[in-house]
Amino acid sequence: MKKLSILALSAFLFAVSCKESKTDNASTATEQAVAEQQGEAYTVNADSSSVKWTGYHKGGLNPRFGTMKTSGTLSLDGDNLTSGSLSSDVNTLVTDPASVDPAQSEGKTSADLDGHLKSADFFDAAKYPTVKFEITKIEDLAAGTESKTEGANKTVSGNLTIKDKTVNVTFPAKVAVANGKAEVTSKFTINRQDWGLAYGAEGDPKDWMISQEVDLELHVVATK
Question: Does the N-terminal or the C-terminal CB of the chain have fewer CB atoms within 10 Å?
Answer without folding.
Answer: N
